[in-house]
Write a structure and sequence with these properties.
This protein has 441 residues and is an alpha+beta fold. It contains twelve helices and 23 strands. It folds into two domains: 8-24 and 236-439, Enolpyruvate transferase domain (UDP-n-acetylglucosamine1-carboxyvinyl-transferase, Chain, Alpha-beta prism), CATH 3.65.10.10; 26-234, UDP-n-acetylglucosamine1-carboxyvinyl-transferase, Chain (Alpha-beta prism). Helix content is 28%, strand content 26%. The strands form six sheets. It has a four-stranded mixed sheet with strand order 21-22-1-23. Strands 2-15-17-16 form a four-stranded mixed sheet.
Length: 441
């Protein structure tokens, strides 16, 4: 958090045009810092996200004895201390608003020989961590949380971790990653089975750092007792950030926007499939690999989206992009139905309720479901009402409402937007540069 309240005023802008880049992938930036820190040798990271979430993770690793240099924006040099080289800190480890950081660090710290306490801001302190604590406890970790599995998390020293064969009840890349991180310190072979495949950046990065890992569809296995070797990582642009621009350019007539170097890992791009199913005009240009991840330049032109039933099989691959999808659905022809997305209830906010409330204020009919929503689109000629919307301190709600306002009849005031800096620093400036009507404080 920035420590001060930030409100925006958004209004209908111009057609979106430009040749732009979005910030580096947040998930990969977190993981690159962690793996480089416990590797042997010095690793370089390019394209690092300079967001508050990832900076919180970097500060924690520094607090644990890792030297991390920042020679320029988007660049880090990490002097790894090896698997057993982290040192305990007498002070709490502050994750800020970073749910990914807290969950992954919980796995990393579960097998250390020192006590740790992971804390977060008011929003993160309301997010349940039980899905991570439960499998780690089964591995022998000693973790204390507040009732309901809420932070802060106190991780006790001296746990002798044992391997686990874990069938995940809910598909979650963060839970899978936490268990695999703990598995580095466990005896035997740790196996994680997913009900549906989720994003695999942890598995890819473990392999890049030299740890033997075997992956088949929905299953990842690794043995303890190996070591990580330093390597250089190139972080592609964050698809979750690009999603807001993809939707904005799709719904504003006359738009033609190029977004360069975007990560298109199939486990990250369910939103791309959903938008195309709705009729969006998005073309992948110059496909290539960046740091072991598939990337491409995405050209998006305005279209007239239509409603769909979002296939449940792509839901885990687009869980962070649903606020943007809700906006596309609100301005599509026909009805869009989302099911199987109950995880949205326990993100930085209850994103189903938050988006439903905001869209209703803008004049859209939305029916909430326990695990999704039914959204009745206004169509290609539809216009949203002027309104004041509460982002609930959730960065993705704030950006989604800013995109929706590009089809509003008047000003849309969006409150509590400071947390946008956690994932998309510079969003306000980039949005204005490509033609969106958006003003900050």
């Amino acid at each position: 958090m920035t420590g001060r309240r930030v409100d925006w005023v958004a209004t209908r802008g111009e057609p979106l045009h430009g040749d732009v880049r979005v910030p580096g992938d947040k998930s990969i930036s977190h993981r690159a810092l962690m793996f480089a820190s416990i590797a042997q040798g010095t690793s370089g990271i390019r394209g690092f996200l300079e967001g508050q979430d990832t900076l919180a993770t970097a500060a924690i690793l520094h607090q644990l004895g890792v030297r991390i240099d920042a020679p320029s924006a988007g660049e880090r040099i990490v002097h790894g201390v090896g698997l057993r080289g982290l040192r305990g800190s007498g002070a709490p480890l502050d994750c800020g608003n970073a749910g990914t950081g807290m969950r992954l660090l919980c796995g990393l710290l579960a097998g250390q020989d020192f006590d740790s306490e992971l804390i977060g801001d008011a929003s993160l302190s309301r997010r349940p961590m039980g899905r991570v604590v439960e499998p780690l406890t089964r591995m022998g970790a000693r973790i204390e949380a507040r009732p309901g599995g809420l932070p802060p998390l106190r991780i006790r020293a001296g746990a002798s971790l044992r391997s686990i064969d874990y069938d995940m009840p809910v598909a979650s890349a963060q839970v899978k990653s936490a268990v695999l991180l703990a598995g580095l310190y466990a005896r035997g072979t740790t196996c994680v089975r997913e009900p549906r495949p989720t994003r695999d950046c942890t598995e890819s990065m473990l392999a890049a750092f030299g740890w033997p890992i075997r992956c088949t569809a929905g299953v990842a296995r690794l043995e303890g007792g190996h070591r990580l070797r330093a390597t250089d990582v190139v972080v592609p642009g964050d698809f979750s950030s690009a999603a807001f621009l993809l939707v904005a350019a799709s719904i504003v007539p006359g738009s033609d926007l190029l977004i360069r170097d975007v990560g298109i890992n199939p486990r990250r791009t369910g939103m791309l499939a959903a938008l195309r199913a709705m009729g969006a005009d998005i073309v992948e240009e110059n496909p290539r690999r960046l740091g072991g991840e598939m990337a491409a330049d995405l050209r998006v032109r305005s279209a007239n989206p239509h409603g769909i039933d979002v296939p449940t099989e792509v839901v885990p691959d687009m869980i962070d992009e649903f606020p943007a999808l809700f906006v596309a659905a609100a301005l599509a022809d026909g009805v869009t139905t989302v099911r199987g997305a109950a995880e949205l209830r326990v993100k930085e906010s209850d994103r189903i309720a938050g988006m439903a409330t905001g869209l209703r204020a803008l004049g859209v009919r939305v029916e909430e479901l326990p695990d999704g929503a039914i959204i009745h689109g206004l169509g290609a000629s539809g216009r949203l009402r002027s309104a004041t919307l509460d982002s609930l301190g959730d960065h993705r709600l704030a950006m989604a409402f800013a995109v929706a306002a590009q089809r509003a009849e008047g000003d849309v005031r969006i409150t509590d937007c400071a947390n946008v800096a956690t994932s998309f620093p510079g969003f306000l400036e980039l949005a204005e540069a490509v033609g969106m009507g958006l003003q900050g404080p």
